[in-house]
Amino acid sequence: MSKQALRKASPTVSSDRLAAQAEEALRLEKFKDAIESFKQLVKQDPRPQWSEGLAEAYVGRARALAAKGMFKEAEIVLGNAARADGSARQPLLLLRCLVHQGQLQKALAYLIAHPPESGDDARLAELAAALFLAFPSELRGAHDAESPRGMWLRAAAAARAALEAWIGAKPDAEVDALLAKIPLNSAFGAVRLILKSLLLGPGDGLKARRLLQGVDEVSPFAPLRRAAEAAIASASEQSPGGLSSLDAQQRSFVIEASGLSASTSQTALRLAEAEAAGADALFSFLAKQAEPFDAADLRGACRNLLPRAPDRIQHFEKRFGPLEEWERQRIVALAAEQAGEWRRAERCWRKAAALFEKDGSPRARLSAGVVYRHLAALADRHNEIDGDGFGEDPRIGYLRKSVAADPDHLPARLDLTDRLRESEEPEEQKDWHAQAEDAAARFPQESSALLRAIDSAAERKAFKKAAGYAQKLLALDPINLSARQRMIDLQIAQARKQLRAKRPDLAEKALDEALRWERSDKPSAALRSNMGLLGLYADRGAEAEAQLRQGAELAGGAAIGWFRAAIEEALLAPPGRARLPLLRDELDAQLRKAPEKREILAIAAALGAKDVKQAAKATAHVGWRFCSWLREATQVPFSPDEFHPVAEALLRAQLFDVLGDFAAAALRREPREPVWRFYRIVARTENDPDRMHYPESEEIFDIRDGSRARETFALGNRIQRYLDSSGDDPAAKRRAKRVAAREQAFVGDDTASLIEEVFDAIPPGEVRRLLKIHGPGGAPRAIATQLANAPTLGAVPIPALEQLARILMEMVAADDAAPF
Amino acid sequence: MTDPFTTLGVQEDAGDDEIRQRYLALVRAFPPDLEPARFQAHRAAYERVQDERKRLEATLLSTNDVALSRLKASLLQAERPGSGRPSRDSVKSLLVQGVEKALA
């Protein structure tokens, strides 16, 4: 409501209604309206609650004005709310208004006239103390009174006297005596701490710093505290030269307190200012200096500024003499990095490294190693770094150079080994074995190098060698449990290898060696099973049978234990050897019972292990028996995540009907679940995407896209493997080869006629239309779907049609871009 | 972040022993229980320069303020360190700054 409207309306508005309006305006922080209403009310009847309301409205309005930066207006409005004795209702707000207007002395006058009454407003008291010391003024009042004001006055007088004595360089004892008169719990306590620390500073820096910690970071004495800290650090030479982090006032304080001559103080101040102004200004300042500075330090300081001021290189060389070429390259490289010019940085670093290599001294070789490692790290973060440009991963290339220059740097070697191992390039893959061996030979006491050598040797099936490395590792760390387990696994792998080589004696030796590393309180299921199997092959009867049974029991007992034992047999037995009747009978006995979910999951996981999949042919019969057994379990309710390893086992055993039964049963429970829909299609097409019907291909693309949209990447990737025929079952592998050959054929000599046929099925205009509707991501699928309807292309697999669709899109785009 | 040489107050070409001695002296002056932040800073700096390779990394791949610090230290070398007294104006401006910041 406007002021005019209020005045007009007021005669007809009752007091109660007006009071309600005023209260409401106050509550809604409409302070102008509240002020007008309360004014009217007070005019009618100066009731105390309305006077208070008016004052509250003024304070609110003042706060709002101050928030907008209108401090002068806020001060005036706040004056309207002053109490009868002239004190402000919001002293802090008033002080803020005065300080923002630069009226510090007025603020101090207010505080002296209305000193903080009690200890409850410590902040106000400290502000008063700081202002009083900044603008000394006469103190009136009874200093000896025991009132809060009397105490404040005494502390103020003592603090001022102590500060004056210190500034006047009076003897320490005199200043100390004055400081003792300042109560630590008073508003002037911070002054006592700061001055005392400055007295102690040069001799006892630690105690001085501890005293300063008593001054709060938000106190008005905080800038003085920081300056005192810097002065003490400078005097005690424990942290020289921290001036640049201080502001101008603090720098002046530190330099004046340091006891320097006037001219040196002046130079120190100019140096600090130049430093604060940036690298260029500092370089200019330093380059002009001579006495009393040390010439080598001047050169060093200017040289270190060059990466931040590369335009000054010429100036530097003129003033201090030429830079070495590697140094020049280093400076330009660092400057290029700061500018984000990565190619230039790479070029310069390479030149610097080449110069180090040419030098050949031990230090220069270490320097080359440092630079190449830095380039490898840069290549990790910036695509612009392209190494030698011969197709090799630049990170690998630079790490190779680093290792060549500094072969004793273990982290670089390990990094190189790991990157070679992960590389998809066959040559680099081979090289990781050489690097791992070399690292283990050079660093025989480093477990990280030995672990990589173990992995490398095991990958090459050099199990004896791997066991040798494991033995070295265990010599370094005998209680390393995973190393012990690794040793046992390696010896078992060696035993398998020896038995296949028809050397049962050596196989037994390997298992005996494994037994050395077995913990007595934690016998190994696999080791016991293998010992039993080997004993039974050697006709050792009861003892061997007991060991095999123990192994099965340790592996989980019942179906889980005997399936695991069967897997061990499949991995150990040489080709052509008949299976052990004991194992066959025990497994048969287990298979007569219906499988439980727990058993299915454990056995599927065991069949999915890397060594089992690698020996696919040898272990196929175990997988087949397991999967046949699963016919009894198609009603077991698996979650989609649980089911993937089971499905993999079924696919490897090629039991598509069982997979179909599982999918059908699960779909009855969860009809919309994409995993079950996917496996239904996989089962029907017998894991061959070429056999998909058109609606099935539509459905499978929907499931794939949906899973990617929901970020369920495991299913998306699984579907992609199916579509690419890249599963690990033998049929999928054969099909993948077939598809690759067919796709290769599409881009061969017959391409032109095929493209012609394709354009008959889908004209370029239609390609453009679909591209516009679906975008470059979705268009291949949409085009492939249309192509699949063409009679001549119906037999072509969907992935190949997608490939064709991409070619069509490129051709259409090229036509559109052509000038005629 | 201050470079490790400046933090420790050693030269770029200092050796392993010298750096270690300096680090231990700093640990004694700024023990971890009393000055944890400074101790951490000294520890981190020491780890960055404790062997030759690391020192080379620090000198080649970044810049440092060692020489500048020495220049400042030589400049600030007084006959009686800490014997000077700041002017009333310097103290006043720091107090005013404190009041202004406290009421900002």
Describe the protein.
The complex is a heterodimer of chains A (820) and B (104). The two termini of chain A are 72 Å apart. Among the domains of chain A are: 3-154, Tetratricopeptide repeat domain (Serine Threonine Protein Phosphatase 5, Tetratricopeptide repeat); 608-745, no CATH class; 747-817. By secondary structure, chain A is an all-alpha fold. The radius of gyration of chain A is 43 Å and the shape is extended. In chain A, helix 11 (189-200) runs parallel beside helix 13. Chain A contains 44 helices and no strands. By secondary structure, chain B is mainly α. Chain B has a single domain (4-76), classed as Helix Hairpins (Orthogonal Bundle). Chain B contains 6 helices and no strands.
What would a concise description of this structure say?
The complex is a heterodimer of chains A (820) and B (104). Chain A is mostly helical.
Tally of extended strands of chain A?
A: 0
Give the CATH architecture of chain B: Orthogonal Bundle
Strand content of chain B: under 5%
Largest interface: A-B, 89 and 53 residues
User: In whole angstroms, how far apart are the ends of chain B?
Assistant: 28 Å
Average pLDDT taken over every residue of chain B:
85
Which radius of gyration of chain A do the C-alpha atoms yield?
43 Å
Termini separation of chain A (Å)?
72 Å
CATH architecture classification of the domain at 3-154 in chain A: Alpha Horseshoe
Please identify which CATH superfamily of chain B we are dealing with. DnaJ domain
Overall residue-averaged pLDDT value of chain A = 81
Helical amount of chain A: over 70%
H/E order of the elements of chain B?
Answer: HHHHHH
Low-confidence stretches of chain A: none
Q: In CATH's first tier, which class of chain B applies?
A: Mainly Alpha
CATH class of the domain at 3-154 in chain A: Mainly Alpha
* Helix-residue proportion of chain B: 55-70%
Global shape of chain B = elongated
Unreliable stretches of chain B: none
